[in-house]
């Protein structure tokens, strides 16, 4: 499996909208999509509210095809409008444990 993980910092008061976008992304039909998660740490070591976003696809090819799609660009723009700064992305391989 392949995908991305990102550290994101929502704008003040936008946390509920961020969660709603995450819910809608999981419901959107994307070829090769396996799972997505939005994680909020109990103890935030950062100066601003921080979440971690995870998206998992079948393989690198389906992940990259989705990343390059117009639909994903629209979803990203919707997400980015709720963030104080651009996400800190990390793409890579996932293994089940």
Tag the structure with descriptive keywords.
4-stranded antiparallel sheet, 97 residues, alpha+beta, 4 strands, Alpha-Beta Plaits, globular
Structure description:
The structure is a single chain. This protein has helices at 15-27, 60-67, 70-80; strands spanning 2-8, 33-39, 51-57, 88-93. The chain is α+β, with helices and mostly antiparallel strands. The chain has one domain (2-93): Alpha-Beta Plaits (2-Layer Sandwich), CATH 3.30.70.100. Strands 2-3-1-4 form a four-stranded antiparallel beta sheet. The longest helix has 13 residues, at 15-27. It starts with a strand and ends with a strand.
- The low-pLDDT segments are none
Distance between the termini: 12 Å
- Our estimate of the beta-strand percent is 25-35%
Mean pLDDT score: 90
At the first level of CATH, what is the class? Alpha Beta
**Helix and strand pattern:** EHEEHHE
SSE topology:
Blueprint: E1 2-8, H1 15-27, E2 33-39, E3 51-57, H2 60-67, H3 70-80, E4 88-93
Antiparallel strand pairs: 1-3, 1-4, 2-3
Summarize the structure.
The protein is α+β, with helices and mostly antiparallel strands and 97 residues long. The protein has helices spanning 15-27, 60-67, 70-80; strands at residues 2-8, 33-39, 51-57, 88-93.
């Amino acid at each position: 499996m392949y995908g991305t993980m990102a550290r994101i910092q929502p704008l003040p008061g936008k946390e509920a909208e961020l969660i709603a976008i995450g819910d809608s992304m999981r419901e959107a039909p994307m070829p090769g999509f396996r799972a997505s998660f939005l994680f909020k740490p109990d103890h935030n070591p950062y100066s601003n509210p921080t979440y971690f976003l995870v998206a998992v696809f079948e393989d690198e090819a389906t992940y990259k095809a989705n990343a390059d799609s117009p639909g994903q660009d629209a979803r990203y723009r919707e997400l980015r409008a709720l963030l104080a700064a651009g996400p800190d992305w990390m793409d890579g391989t996932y293994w089940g444990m």
